[in-house]
Amino acid sequence: MLQTEGLRFRSGYDILVAVKDVLAIAYHYLPIASPGAERMRAFARDLPEHGYRLLPVTTSTYGREGAEDVVRVGEPVGLFRTILNPEQKMASPEVRSRIRTDAGGLSGIATFIRDRISIPDGQIAWCLPALLACLREIRRRDVRVLYTSSPPNSVHLLGSMVKGLMGLPWVAEFRDTWTHDPIDAFLSQGGWRLRLEASMERHVAIGADRVVGVTNRACDFLETLAGAGKVRCVPNGFAEDLSFVEDEVGSDGPLHIVHVGSFSESHQRRSPDVLVKAVASLGDAVRLSLVGPLTEEEKDRVRRLGAGCVETVGMVPRDEALQWQRDSDAVVLVDHARSHPSTNVPSKCYEYLASGRSILALTPEGATRDLLKEVGGGICVDPDDEPGITSALGRLIEVKRRGKLREFAARDGTMERYCRKGLAGELAKVFDEMAEG
Description:
Layout: E1 7-9, E2 16-18, E3 20-25, H1 35-46, E4 52-59, E5 71-73, H2 76-84, H3 87-90, H4 93-96, H5 107-116, H6 127-140, E6 143-150, H7 154-166, E7 170-174, H8 192-207, E8 210-213, H9 216-226, E9 231-233, E10 255-260, H10 273-281, E11 286-291, H11 296-305, E12 310-314, H12 318-327, E13 330-334, H13 348-355, E14 358-362, H14 367-375, E15 379-381, H15 386-401, H16 420-435
Parallel strand pairs: 3-4, 3-6, 4-5, 6-7, 7-8, 8-9, 10-11, 10-13, 11-12, 13-14, 14-15
Antiparallel strand pairs: 1-2
C-alpha cells in the first residue's frame, strides 16, 4: 500500500511529491495578531505545494487556538500577563495578543529589565524551554532544515544553539533588521547594548547557512555581516484575496483617510501627532479614522490636537479593518523619522497597495519609498514635515473632486510579485539550497 504521510499533491500535476519537514522557530504565530504571524501562517499553508512542511515552534502565552501540529512552549511572561492583565484571558484569540499589559507601579522596574537585562529582548527567557522542545521534535521527526524568523531576535540565538547541537542546515530570516535600523528605541541610542547586540547579530549572520531579508536595503546590510553569496531576499506581501478597487466618482465631500494599526505600541518612536495636527489645520475638509490600538497618552493627544476631525476606532478584527480601508478615500502609512535611510517597509504598506487605494506615506528616505517608486503608488512626505503633509492632503482633496484618486495608487499589475502565495515559492528555493546541499 502506498504511504502518503509526508506526501502532498503538487498543484497542476498528477503526481505525489515528498514533503520535507522544516522546523520553524517563530515566536509570532497564530493566534498572535501580527504581520509576522500572518507571514508564517501563509508560508505554512503554501509551502507544501513546493515540497516543504513547516513545523512551527512558538509561544503558548497568547493561547493555543488557530492551528494544529504546532509546538507551543510556555514562558515567564505568560504568568506576568495573567497576573497583571486578567482581561486578556477573556478576550477573543484575534485580539488577545494586541492587549498590552500595564505594569502599574512596577513600570519603572519593568522598563529597567527590558532595556538593560532582557537582552536582546523579553523573549530570551522563552529560549531555554523552547530549546528542549526543539530537540524533542528533531529527534522524533525527519527534520531537514532549521528556519528562524525574527523579531524577536532571541529566536536566532535559539537557532544558533539548535544548529550547534544538531548540525541542521540553518536559514535565519530577519523581517526587521536588528541593529542597523532598530525598532527598539533604547537600542537606537547606541552604547554598550548596541555593541553587544551587534556582536550577536554578526554571530548569527556568520553562523547561519543562509540569511533572508525582506528588502533590498536590508539584504545589502546583512551581506556586510554574512558575506557574499549567503543572503536572499524574500519580501513581505499581501493575501491574494485583498484587491478591492472600485470605480471612482468625483465628490466635493470631505476627504476620508484611514490609518490601520498601532503607533508607539508596536514601534516606540512612531506617533500620530504630526498627522493629526495637519488634518486639524484643514478643518472640515478632511476626516481621519484611526483604526487600531492607541495608548492612553496617544488618545489624549489626539483629542487635544484633532479639533474634532479625528475618529478613534480602537482594535477591530481583521475583516473589519479591511472594510475601513474599502470605505476610505485614501489610506495613511506612518513611519518614524530617521537620520539614515530606512531598511524596513511597514507590513501594512503591501495591503494598502494591493487594495488599490491612494496612499499618503509619512516615511523617510529608504525602503518604503523604494517600493512606492517601483509600483507607482503613494504620495511620500517626511514624517515630521507638517506643512508637507498638509500640502499632500490638499492634493488628495483636489484629485478626489476630479474623481482621480487612482493617480496615487499602485499601477495595475505591479503588485503580483508581492502576493504571499508566490513568495512561498521563493522561500522554498532557499530551502532547496539547504536540503540538497
